[in-house]
Amino acid sequence: MGAGTTQATASAAAEAVLASILSAAEAEKVYIAHFGTFEYDTRPARRAYDINSGRIREVPAAHKLTFRPSAGFVPKQKS
């Protein structure tokens, strides 16, 4: 996108890219070279302590999209 691109056009393009990643990640891992990997992670149902009520509550299973950046994408830390 060039210098004459509007914010609305850029936003629409970003939304389209994210929508395609979300739909593709449902079936398999999505790897973008030099950026990272998107994949869905299924977390089982579990029991957790609720600090507000002091009781144990059931947390339902979750199906979340996760992202792992590529090694080249993460900035190197100075020692």
Detailed description of the structure:
The protein is α+β, with helices and mostly antiparallel strands and 79 residues long. The chain has a domain at 29-79: HU Protein, Chain A (Irregular), CATH 4.10.520. Helix content is 24%, strand content 37%. The protein contains 1 helix and 5 strands; from the N terminus they run H-E-E-E-E-E.
Mean pLDDT: 87
The helix content, as a percent range, equals: 10-25%
SSE pattern, N- to C-terminal:
HEEEEE
The profile of the biggest β sheet is:
3 strands, antiparallel
Q: Using only CA atoms, what is the Rg?
A: 19 Å
Q: Provide a count of the helices.
A: 1
The coarse silhouette is extended
The CATH topology of the domain at 29-79 turns out to be HU Protein, Chain A
Name the structural class.
alpha+beta
Strand order of the largest sheet: 1-2-5
CATH superfamily of the domain at 29-79: IHF-like DNA-binding proteins
CATH architecture of the domain at 29-79: Irregular
Q: N- to C-terminal separation? A: 38 Å
In the CATH hierarchy, what is the class of the domain at 29-79?
Few Secondary Structures
Q: Tell me the number of strands.
A: 5
Q: Uncertain regions: pLDDT < 50 for 5+ in a row? A: none
Report the sheet-strand fraction: 35-45%
Condensed summary:
The chain has 79 residues and is an alpha+beta fold.
What attributes does this structure have?
single chain; 79 residues; alpha+beta; HU Protein, Chain A; two-stranded antiparallel sheet; 1 helix; 24% helix
Element layout with pairings:
Blueprint (H helix, E strand, L loop, with lengths): L6 H19 L4 E3 L3 E8 L2 E5 L4 E5 L2 E8 L10
Antiparallel strand pairs: 1-2, 2-5, 3-4
